[in-house]
């Protein structure tokens, strides 16, 4: 009898299970931009780690199809200036490598301010990394924001 292949849950999925927060686990590498037919790239959000001149590290979450407005994020976060954390310092700062940053895992270890772009409110659900390359979760935007203590703000660049 063949064993059923069980995909081990990521730490992020285990945290959400324990908190009884509904989500759907996905095998999806957003960096490769190859998506199942039922998903659009505008549903996928990237978790960006930045540092502010007043607050220190902070997190901005925007659609992968958009660019972050550092000016807007600085304004809503109470900083004069924010800048991306260099990749070589990313894992030391957030605990995750590039492409695996996620608000759930970051919030478990750090109390960094988290800002989610307002566009996530227009969608009922959003997709973010599950803490490992190739793994993502689809979760209600408000559930995620409530769980990680995030604020919604207009932080993407205007076109």
Question: What this model shows, in words?
Answer:
The protein is an alpha/beta fold. The chain has helices at 11-18, 70-77, 87-94, 103-109, 119-122, 141-148; strands spanning 23-27, 45-52, 56-63, 82-84, 114-117, 125-132, 135-140, 151-153. The protein has a five-stranded mixed sheet. Strands 1-7-6 form a three-stranded antiparallel sheet. It is globular and about 45 Å long.
Briefly, what is this?
With 159 residues, the protein is α/β, with parallel strands linked by helices. The chain contains 6 helices and 8 strands, in the order αβββαβααβαββαβ. Helices cover 27% and strands 28% of the residues.
Tell me, briefly, the overall form: globular
Which whole number gives the mean pLDDT? 91
Side by side, the strands of the main sheet go 4-2-3-5-8
Q: Between the first and last Cα atoms, what is the distance in angstroms?
A: 56 Å
The helix tally amounts to 6
Rg, Å, rounded:
15 Å
Give the helix level as a range of percent. Answer: 25-40%
Largest sheet report: 5 strands, mixed
Q: pLDDT under 50 segments (min length 5)?
A: none
> Structural class, from helix and strand content?
alpha/beta
Percentage of residues in strands: 25-35%
What is the helix/strand order?
A: HEEEHEHHEHEEHE
In oligomeric terms, what are we looking at?
single chain
**Strand count:** 8
